[in-house]
């Protein structure tokens, strides 16, 4: 693209009169240099910071606009995420003072930039900083925080990516007095890095002390932390009476032994996410579900029994979002009991990915009754669920915003995409996301494929994402821009 000139056809070209005769409409040519600064600033606001840095190399004027503090309110300095790299602590300190300042609301820092000097400067120069991410995940050792006397005091959101082997207590002791206003806490573990062989597990952060310093937490996310168990859940519930959301996905030491106490203490708890936990049905059945305020529940990839699932789902009065895929115990009996109990009346989203023990007949009965109330439906990962079931229930999915279907396993039948697309376009006008995960070898298109896509585009005006047979993950190259 040539950034030097923009050709603009005037919508209301000037009309001049000479001796009663109208002149021809004239075409105006405007160079981009004539655009006001506020217009350029607005254009730059749609760019990533990496792109903004590239724009800063065009000319002096663009450089001044690119470094306007209003474009730097949310900043990630993790190169693998944003492509931005700060070469030295001195450069970062200068950026905090000159480019970020009072405008900064959110910042992400990698381990090499997390020092007491940087944190002091953020506390002093960025009084409106409310969201912070500190990435210690690659740390082999920490900086010396013995002299740290200041830390941002207005934080509402704090995310800490933990190291596998580095103990964080020395750092945490220094910030306990500054984080009592936190409302959202994310502790991200090293679940994805764990090797198959069992190694010694270190409790790299003291959760029991942390909970005492954060009494105002509403959201707690402990993701993939290999040392977190039921005692840590009990600790948070004993002090965080305003807790609304608890996520312990992929914390495989969580068995559910303190869940009953959790719900007795946390009356405001509406969201509980326990994907991949080693839950025991006995403990889950002890919870007083009928007295809970739970609306969103994720028990994906757990070993809960059919009896436990029936007991739980028939006692939760206001459940709206359920994710219960990859559970052998989730079968036709669960759907039948849940429907008959009437506790599925408020359901708006259902994810039963890879639940092979549910038959298409049972799903058809359930969806025929509840399909019109669903905003989201995930029936992926099941070889016996084909386009035939979807075609039969599409007319009741008229409020659906998200539909995910198909499996990457090779099927013995073909999926006729055109007919499916046509049905979706006619019955799902509110659709925003559509995923067809079937193997490409099973997809069949006709000469009317283009017409089917056009119908989907014209009738599903809110559609933002369309995925046809997602490709296998590939490594993406990350380009880095050096900030100065």
How is this structure best described in words?
Residues 29-75 form the F-box domain. This is F-box domain-containing protein. InterPro entries: F-box-like_dom_sf, F-box_dom, LRR_dom_sf. Pfam families: F-box-like. The chain is of the alpha/beta class and 484 residues long. The chain is 29% helix and 17% strand. The protein has helices at residues 37-44, 49-55, 60-66, 79-82, 89-100, 116-125, 169-175, 207-213, 230-239, 259-265, 281-284, 306-313, 332-341, 360-370, 387-393, 417-427, 449-459, and strands at 5-7, 17-18, 21-22, 29-31, 74-76, 84-86, 106-110, 131-135, 157-161, 184-188, 219-223, 245-247, 271-273, 296-298, 321-323, 349-351, 376-380, 402-406, 415-416, 433-436, 443-444, 465-468, 481-483. The strands form five sheets. Strands 5-7-8-9-10-11-12-13-14-15-16-17-18-20-22 form a 15-stranded parallel beta sheet. Helix 8 (207-213) links the parallel strand 10 and strand 11 (219-223). It is globular and about 65 Å long. The protein starts with a strand and ends with a strand. The model is unreliable at 1-27 and 473-479 (pLDDT under 50).
Topology, element by element:
Elements: E1 5-7, E2 17-18, E3 21-22, E4 29-31, H1 37-44, H2 49-55, H3 60-66, E5 74-76, H4 79-82, E6 84-86, H5 89-100, E7 106-110, H6 116-125, E8 131-135, E9 157-161, H7 169-175, E10 184-188, H8 207-213, E11 219-223, H9 230-239, E12 245-247, H10 259-265, E13 271-273, H11 281-284, E14 296-298, H12 306-313, E15 321-323, H13 332-341, E16 349-351, H14 360-370, E17 376-380, H15 387-393, E18 402-406, E19 415-416, H16 417-427, E20 433-436, E21 443-444, H17 449-459, E22 465-468, E23 481-483
Parallel strand pairs: 5-7, 6-23, 7-8, 8-9, 9-10, 10-11, 11-12, 12-13, 13-14, 14-15, 15-16, 16-17, 17-18, 18-20, 19-21, 20-22
Antiparallel strand pairs: 1-4, 2-3
Helix pairs in contact: 5-6, 8-9, 9-10, 12-13, 16-17
